[in-house]
């Protein structure tokens, strides 16, 4: 045997680098670290639970809770049910937390960092303590105050059930997350699962009335076991021992709810929940082991422009100037120059810097810069990262939302006014923000429509758009969808050209471009630069910030505005042919080494003017510049351009926007209509989900609508209305959030560009939902109405349809409104979700209004879903005089137990219309009032 000298780890025979114990330890440590870093979400959830349990304990307050009849018992069942539902919903955040970690997991699994079980196990076990805390918080706060059985053993038994429900629910949603692997898919699965287990959880519909084809669902709903266990625990207690019809009151309450009244059902429930926890976590581990990443993440639109030849030579001035000059000239525009003298910009001192002992209360970001941009001259704005280039551009273009601006900015000699300036300028922002669901041509048409003067007729507008598309070479992409960056649609470079084109179709005289070539390869950068050059040659004023340009690109510029860190200029002047002027200026400064042959002058210039060089040479380049001839010439130029030329007038437009309010509304609606039509992941999925739920409810509550002989049957029918209204409402409100969030970023840019005011945009967003929601409600109502078998009279059907339509519409607007008042869709989802629990408990089904303590009754009236449930139930059943087995009429029972009056119907209808208008209006108002963009 030869004696090998190599290290034992050089050629490993093991699959993983560590043994099982160490693998597990590493994964556990990581999970704990992640939880610590992510502690905000756990604290927030705990806080949410605290608020909800506080509401629960004041709502089901013990002095208001009696133990005389089975109806009293029903309220206790409601309190128990709500507790279980809240604990179940609480686990839903596992979906997004699981999915967020999946990409990293898949990569590490495939590189054999660790096997899937050692990832799955900590993901479950490490979070168990959280369940202990959450369940304890709920039980401790609510148990005695609501007045459940004071026996301490029963207290702990209830705690145990809630603990297991919590574990079950987080296991379920972890599994769904790992199975769905994508937010939209997993959320849809998650909603289905929730709907199923809640509807079949034994509270909404009683066991005896579950159709035989749904019994499997009943027996596999973990909530059914939890409910059975928790009611047995409560109602077999001492307080419910009062005799009733040969048995006890407690037992009657249990059996009338369709549960089993034997004491051992508590332990069956515990065993079942434990089983669910094990199985669900096993399924989680299995999906982690078997499944891979979901689909491909990037699919670009056709690279139809691959054959375009890029001629760099055409970019340099002179060569083709006469030919390109003709381009983009069909609409006249006035050339304008822009001068700025001693412009300063400061912001309030950031908190972090104050903590480091900075005493000033303002931070100066621009220390008095001056310059002039002239028509037909392409100016490069350069400087190291953080020099203040974007800041200067934002200040000049009027896009800053905060801070203090000083100094003199003039347009063709007249002081700059933002309203008129917005009409003659364009700003291509560094990040390309566009509506994803419209085509390139539509984006341009839309921008042109809103920004060109009113006297431009449709024909001219269209040919102008064609002209611009020619100019920026977008013709091959005319009908391509824009899509979302990094997901689908246009590539980065195509998107950049679209950004430029969107500004060009506004026919601006002055254009700012922030880093139009960053992130592009040399070929794409060349295409973009040729576009820019073409634009300047039409006689417009163009300023570009640019990073690391190649020699060719750099020499396409006429002038350079070079800044250094701290917001000061150190060279403002011509570049010259082959950069000769620039090179001469710097080489003339003492101590600066000559440029080597063939070296990129842009790179050289940045190198020799770096702050390290300043230190080495002991000079200040800004000072040198301010003592140069160049500086004096620039000042003279600024002075010359700062007085209006004789015979010219200041910019004047009769209205702030180029189009009238009505036209703005129409154009916005036109775009929204396309956006919605082309967004099947939103509209079609929502529609399919609704249809599916309709069929599910239809089969689940088959023919219940016509049965009204006993209270139980009536409660089942009302339960079906309750569950459907609640789930569809939540689904609509949460589905709309990401859509509005994406559109809002586009809205910020478009409003800043002066395309429209906020109201037409909001108006279009609100209006475009109506046909979709109507189709959704119509299909849902027809299916459900027919299958559940409600009373077939036209009036009743239309009432049903009306309430369904209004409730879906106002909940959609509610979802929009939550986006409008929060900075992003994630926060909106959290805020919206905290109200779903409230909407649920105060809807009048879990606890009917007459049973709500007076101090909470106002909230019943302030709860939109309570109105919908009221309207739906009373329009269906409120006029029946049939007698129930108890001797009461249907009408009388509804009035006594639920507090529903049939004469109230017109008022309820009015409130529904009011709610729709209210949420729609708040959305519009907040979109207008709040700007979460910080720059
Ligand atoms: N609102 C603000 N509050 C505090 N500091 C700010 C603010 N805006 C910008 N700054 C600071 O001002 C400096 C200039 O920022 P700016 O974004 O203009 O640089 P830039 O030249 O565009 O850099 P880059 O090339 O990286 O885009 C940076 O140091 C930045 O941190
Ligand atoms: Mg920048």
TrEMBL record:
Establish whether keyword ATP-binding is in the entry.
yes
Q: Which UniProt keywords apply?
A: ATP-binding, Membrane, Nucleotide-binding, Repeat, Transmembrane, Transmembrane helix, Transport
Question: For this UniProt entry, which segments traverse the membrane?
Answer: 40-61, 73-92, 124-146, 158-177, 183-206, 264-291, 683-702, 770-790, 797-821, 827-847, 859-878, 904-927
Q: How does it sit in the membrane?
A: Multi-pass membrane protein
Entries under SMART domains matching the protein: AAA (SM00382)
List the molecular function annotations (GO) for this entry.
Answer: ABC-type transporter activity; ATP binding; ATP hydrolysis activity
The ABC transporter domain is annotated at 338-590
Q: Does the keyword Chaperone apply?
A: no
- Grouped into one coarse class, the protein's main location is membrane
Which Pfam families does the record associate with it?
ABC2_membrane, ABC_tran, PDR_assoc
Gene Ontology CC annotations of this record: membrane
In terms of Gene3D superfamilies, this protein maps to: P-loop containing nucleotide triphosphate hydrolases
Q: Where in the cell is it found?
A: Membrane
What domain of life does the native source organism fall in?
A: Eukaryota
Concerning SUPFAM superfamilies, the annotation shows: P-loop containing nucleoside triphosphate hydrolases
Q: Which family does the UniProt entry place this protein in?
A: Belongs to the ABC transporter superfamily. ABCG family. PDR (TC 3.A.1.205) subfamily.
Q: What is this protein called?
A: ABC transporter domain-containing protein
């Amino acid at each position: 045997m030869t004696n090998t000298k190599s290290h034992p780890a050089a050629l490993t025979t093991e699959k993983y680098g560590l043994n099982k114990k160490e693998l597990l330890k590493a994964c556990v440590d990581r999970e704990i670290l992640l939880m610590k870093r992510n502690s905000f979400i756990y604290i927030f959830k705990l806080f949410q639970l605290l608020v909800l349990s506080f509401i629960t304990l004041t709502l089901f307050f013990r002095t208001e809770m009696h133990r005389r009849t089975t109806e009293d018992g029903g309220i206790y069942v409601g309190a128990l049910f709500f507790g279980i539902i809240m604990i179940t919903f609480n686990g839903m955040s596992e979906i997004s937390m699981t999915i967020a970690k999946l990409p990293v997991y898949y990569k590490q699994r495939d590189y054999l960092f660790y096997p899937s079980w050692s990832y799955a196990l900590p993901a479950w076990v490490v979070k168990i303590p959280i369940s202990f805390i959450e369940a304890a918080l709920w039980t401790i706060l609510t148990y005695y105050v609501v007045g459940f059985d004071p026996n301490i053993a029963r207290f702990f038994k209830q705690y145990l059930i809630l603990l297991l429900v919590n574990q079950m629910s987080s296991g379920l949603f972890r599994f769904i997350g790992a199975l769905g692997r994508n937010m939209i898919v997993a959320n849809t699965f998650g909603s289905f699962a929730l709907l199923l287990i809640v509807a079949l959880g034994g509270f909404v519909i009683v066991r005896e009335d579950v159709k035989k084809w749904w019994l499997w669902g009943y027996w596999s709903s973990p909530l059914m076991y939890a409910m059975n266990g928790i009611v047995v625990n409560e109602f077999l207690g001492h307080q419910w021992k009062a005799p009733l019809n040969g048995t006890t009151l407690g037992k009657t309450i249990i059996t009338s709810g369709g549960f089993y009244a034997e004491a051992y059902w508590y332990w069956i429930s515990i065993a079942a929940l434990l089983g669910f926890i094990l199985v669900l976590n096993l399924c989680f581990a299995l999906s982690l082991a078997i499944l891979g990443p979901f689909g491909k993440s990037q699919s670009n639109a056709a690279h139809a422009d691959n054959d375009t030849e890029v001629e760099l030579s055409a970019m340099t001035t002179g060569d083709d100037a006469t030919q390109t000059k003709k381009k983009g000239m069909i609409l006249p525009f006035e050339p304008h120059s822009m001068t700025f003298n001693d412009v300063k910009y400061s912001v309030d001192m950031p908190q972090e810097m104050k903590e480091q002992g900075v005493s000033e209360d303002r931070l100066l970001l621009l220390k008095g810069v001056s310059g002039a941009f002239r028509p037909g001259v392409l100016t490069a704005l350069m400087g190291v990262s953080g020099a203040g280039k974007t800041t200067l551009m934002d200040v000049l273009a009027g896009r800053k939302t905060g801070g203090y601006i000083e100094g003199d900015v003039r347009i063709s000699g007249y002081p700059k006014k933002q309203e008129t300036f917005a009409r003659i300028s364009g700003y291509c922002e560094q990040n390309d923000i566009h509506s994803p669901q419209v085509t390139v041509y539509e984006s341009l048409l839309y921008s042109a429509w809103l920004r060109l003067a009113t006297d431009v007729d449709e024909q001219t507008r269209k040919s102008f758009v064609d002209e611009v598309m020619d100019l920026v070479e977008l013709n091959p992409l005319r009908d391509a969808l824009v899509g979302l960056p990094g997901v689908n649609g246009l590539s980065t470079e195509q998107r950049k050209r679209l950004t430029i084109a969107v500004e060009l179709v506004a026919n601006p005289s002055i254009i700012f471009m922030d880093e139009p070539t960053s992130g592009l390869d040399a070929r794409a950068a060349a295409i973009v630069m040729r576009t820019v050059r073409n634009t300047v040659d039409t006689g417009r004023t163009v300023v570009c910030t640019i990073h690391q340009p190649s020699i060719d690109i750099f020499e396409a510029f006429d002038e350079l505005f070079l800044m250094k860190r701290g917001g000061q200029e150190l060279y403002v002047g011509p570049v010259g042919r082959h950069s000769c002027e620039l090179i001469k200026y710097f080489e003339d400064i003492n101590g600066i080494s000559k440029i080597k042959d063939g070296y990129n002058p842009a790179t050289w210039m940045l190198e020799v003017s770096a702050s390290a060089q300043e230190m080495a040479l002991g000079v200040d380049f800004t000072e040198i510049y301010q003592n140069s001839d160049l500086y004096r010439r620039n000042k003279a130029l600024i002075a010359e351009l700062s007085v209006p030329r004789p015979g010219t007038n200041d910019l004047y437009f009769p209205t702030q926007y180029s189009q009238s309010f009505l036209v703005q509304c129409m154009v916005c609606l036109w775009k929204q209509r396309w956006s919605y039509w082309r967004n099947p992941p939103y509209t079609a999925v929502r529609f399919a989900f609704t249809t599916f739920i309709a069929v599910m409810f239809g089969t689940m509550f088959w023919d219940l609508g016509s049965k009204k002989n006993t209270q139980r049957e009536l409660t089942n029918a009302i339960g079906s209305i309750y569950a459907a209204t609640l789930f569809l409402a939540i689904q609509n409100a949460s589905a709309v959030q990401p859509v509005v969030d994406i559109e809002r970023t586009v809205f910020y840019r478009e409003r800043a560009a002066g395309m429209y005011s906020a109201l037409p945009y909001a108006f279009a967003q609100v209006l475009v939902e109506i046909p979709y929601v109507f189709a959704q409600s119509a299909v849902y109502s027809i299916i459900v109405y027919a299958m559940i078998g409600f009373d077939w009279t036209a009036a009743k059907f239309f009432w049903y349809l009306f309430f369904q339509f209004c409730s879906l519409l106002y909940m959609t607007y509610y979802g929009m409104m939550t986006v409008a008042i929060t900075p992003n869709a994630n926060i909106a989802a959290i805020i919206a979700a905290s109200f779903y629990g409230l909407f649920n408990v105060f809807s009048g089904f879990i606890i009917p209004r007459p049973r709500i303590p007076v101090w909470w009754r106002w909230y019943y009236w302030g709860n939109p879903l309570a109105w919908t449930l009221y309207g739906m139930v009373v329009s269906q059943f409120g006029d029946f005089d049939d007698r129930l087995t108890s001797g009461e009429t249907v009408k009388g029972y509804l009035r006594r137990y639920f507090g529903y009056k049939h004469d109230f119907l017109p008022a309820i209808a009015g409130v529904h219309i009011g709610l729709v208008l209210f949420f729609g209006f708040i959305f519009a108002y907040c979109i207008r009032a709040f700007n979460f963009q910080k720059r």
